Each structure stands twice: as structure tokens, then as C-alpha cells.
Amino acid sequence: MKTITIKDIARELNLSTSTVSRALRDSSEIGIETKARVLELAQRLDYNPNPVALSLLSSQSHDIGVIVPEIANPFFAIVIAGIEDVAFAQGYHVVIYQSHEDYEREVLNVKHIANRRKDGLLVSIATATTDYSHFKNLHERGFPIVFFDRICEEIDTHKVLVDDFEGAYLATEHLIKQGCDRIAHVSGPDHLLISRRRLHGYRAALLDYGKPIQDDWVVSSSYDAKNSLEIARKLLTRPDRPDGIFASSDNIAIGCHAAIIEMGLSMPDEIALIGFSDLPISALLNPPLSSVAQPAFEMGRSAAELLINLIKNPGKYTTPISNVLKTSLMARKSSLRKPV
Which terminus, N or C, of the chain has the lesser number of Cβ atoms within 10 Å? Predict the structure, then answer.
């Protein structure tokens, strides 16, 4: 199917391409009658402006790049829905990229976003990323970037995250109030800020309630159920088996949940379990998984609003904003020994 161009319209009306272009842009240099003829033919021929050409003229594509570790993760799917809710209302298109938790793929995604003239970038960094130079280079060139959930501390730009410390404290406190004395923590990767903050919240709650803090009860896992399943199996075969587990994410908790069932232990009587994120599947497990809920949709909305403000007002928001959202405890049968 032939694409109609400005040249086609100009040829049909015996006008110059520059006259047609100015008429389509409603320039005051073009008479009303000429504008009407151009617009009527453009509509009849179903002319659609070339978005790449328009972006070259305006220096804006009205496209926003979004990099997430996995779209299949329901948490990121909900965040993306929040991003799109704001972006669509503001006239922006959202282009999704996946890093699949891989550093090299994340670097390629960033290069593609920059080369394709996207107006800005929203990103939650990959687990494997420890070198942030690809983000630093882009940021130093004045490219608008906003981090969400998994953020980079080394770059002074807007960030949206939840209060990971408070959420972890609430989760650990909940296990303590249910009567748990030996509480283990299956943490996320050590280099990620969200993992460290959740670990600090766990330790603070144990300290405040006079519970033992044992380094060998803290084990790091990638954010997936397969890896945490193996880790939980080892924890549960120890002579000093924990009677409570706080997992740094629901994906990690799902692996722990499977290990507990596999070993024939009852939840919550023999071992109580709580995760972090409150994925939709968590309430469907048997027993349903307790979790710390994150406002994922609001996180997406907030990140998109901050980015679009950066795009529309370059140089105005010189002081980085860190928007910290509150979490809430969702207590279910996997941890509930006593009425809340």
C-alpha cells in the first residue's frame, strides 16, 4: 500500500512542498483558501505525517522508553499500566524494553532508546547490573531519566520507590507478633539497594524486639522461585530450622512456599512465611501467602509524571526528587497464627 507524502499532495495541487508543509502546520504565511485545499486533499488521501520526520523537526518524538527486567512479572506489568495511564493522557507513546535481568541487554536497550530519539527513559535496573556508565553517559548528555523500584544511587535524577525499610520492618514485626523466634531472611541480590534496605528493616525489627540476629539465617537469592526453592530446602534441613521466613520478594517467597510444602511442614504452625510485593498469585496459593503490598500502579504514574515534567521543562527541575511510596501489610494464612 502506497504511503501518501507531502510531495504527492503538492503535485496534485500544483503547489510547492514547502507551501504544503506550512499549510499542514497551520502557518500564518499561508492563505485560508490554500490551507483549506491542502487539508481537504490530505484528508481525502488519508495522509499521515511521518513521525520520524516530525521528531527531527520538533526535536521530540513523543515516545517514552521504558526498560523493565521482565514484563511477565505482574509487578512490572502493573507499573507499566500506571505509566501508560499518565503518558497517554499527556500525548506520549510508551515503548517497552526488557532487560531479562541481563546487563548487556540493558546496555543495548539504552543505546536503542537514545538512537531512536525517544524523549526520555523510565528504568528499573537489571539484577546483573553493577556498572551504571550507560545510564551516566546518557544522563550527562542531558537525556531525561527517571528510575523506579530498582534505582541507581550514583545518578542525580528523579526516583520513585517504596519504603523498603518500613515494609521489611512490618513483615518481620508481624512474624514476631505471631510467635516466631527464629526468623530467617531470604534476601535479594546484595548489590541492589532494595535488597539492602529490606535487610536493614528485618534486622531493625529483630533488634527492637530482642530477637536473635544470626548472619547464617540471612541468605541471598536472585529474584526467582527456582533459586529460592533450593535455598529454602537447605534452610529447612538445618538442626536450628527457622520457624519464620521473611522473603525479600513474592517470587522468592513462592520458592520458599514450595519447599515448605515439599518437606511436609505446615504453614503457619511449624513455619510462618511472608513475602514482599503482593503479586496477584500470592492470594491464590495454598495456604495464601502473606505479603507486603507495593502500590505498583501509583509507582508507574508517579514515575511517568516526573519524566514528562523533565521532558517538557528542561533545566527547571535541577533538584532530584525521590518519591517514596508507602507499603501495607497483607496478612494471610501462610503466617497468621493469631488474629491480627
Answer: N
- The whole-number average pLDDT for the span 221-232 is 92
Which of 19-23, 36-40, 130-134, 263-267 has the weakest average pLDDT? 19-23
Beta strand pairing call for 290-293 and 328-330: antiparallel
Which segments of 47-192 does DSSP mark as H helices, in order?
51-58, 74-89, 103-115, 133-140, 164-177
User: How far is residue 119 from each of residues 40, 62, 85, 314, measured CA to CA in Å?
Assistant: 32, 6, 17, 11
**What is the dotted CATH code of the domain comprising 164-294?**
3.40.50.2300
Q: Name the residue with cell 529447612.
A: 236
CATH class of residue range 60-161+296-325: alpha beta
* DSSP letter (8 states) at residue 46: T
Q: Which option is the CATH number for 6-49: 3.40.50.2300, 2.60.40.10, 3.30.2110.10, 1.10.260.40?
A: 1.10.260.40
The whole-angstrom separation of Cα 306 and Cα 322 is 10
What distance in Å separates the CA atoms of residue 29 and residue 159, rounded to the nearest whole number?
Answer: 44
pLDDT digits (tens, 9 = 90+) for 15-71: 888 888 888 877 777 888 888 888 888 888 877 766 555 444 445 568 999 999 999
Domains 60-161+296-325 and 164-294 share a fold: yes
User: Residue 340, SS3?
Assistant: coil
pLDDT of 1 above 70: no
Q: How far apart are CA 209 and CA 188, in angstroms?
A: 24
